[in-house]
Amino acid sequence: MVARAYNRILKLARTIADRDATIDIHPQHIAAAIQYRNSDRSLRM
Fold first, then answer.
1. Which helix (DSSP H) or strand (DSSP E) does residue 43 occupy?
2. Around Cβ 16, how many Cβ atoms within 10 Å?
3. Are the beta carbons of 19 and 11 closer than 8 angstroms?
C-alpha cells in the first residue's frame, strides 16, 4: 500500500511540475501533491 501511495504522489507531483513548465520535480511540487492527495482523501470520507 505504501508503494502505491508513493507512486501516486510522484505521478501527481510530475503533473504539477509539468504545469509549472519545469523538467525536474522540486520539493514544492511534492508538497503540493501531498496536500492535494490529503484533501482528496478527506472529501471521500
1. helix 27-44
2. 19
3. no
HEC profile of 3-41: HHHHHHHHHHHHHHHHHCCCCCCCHHHHHHHHHHHHHHH
* Inter-residue contact 9 to 30 (CB < 8 Å): yes
Extract the C-alpha cell encoding 14.
Answer: 510530475
Per-residue pLDDT of the chain (45 residues; tens, 9 = 90+): 689 989 999 999 999 999 999 999 999 999 999 999 887 666 666
Q: Which three cell numbers stand for residue 32?
A: 503540493
Count of alpha carbons within 13 angstroms of residue 30, beta-carbon side = 8
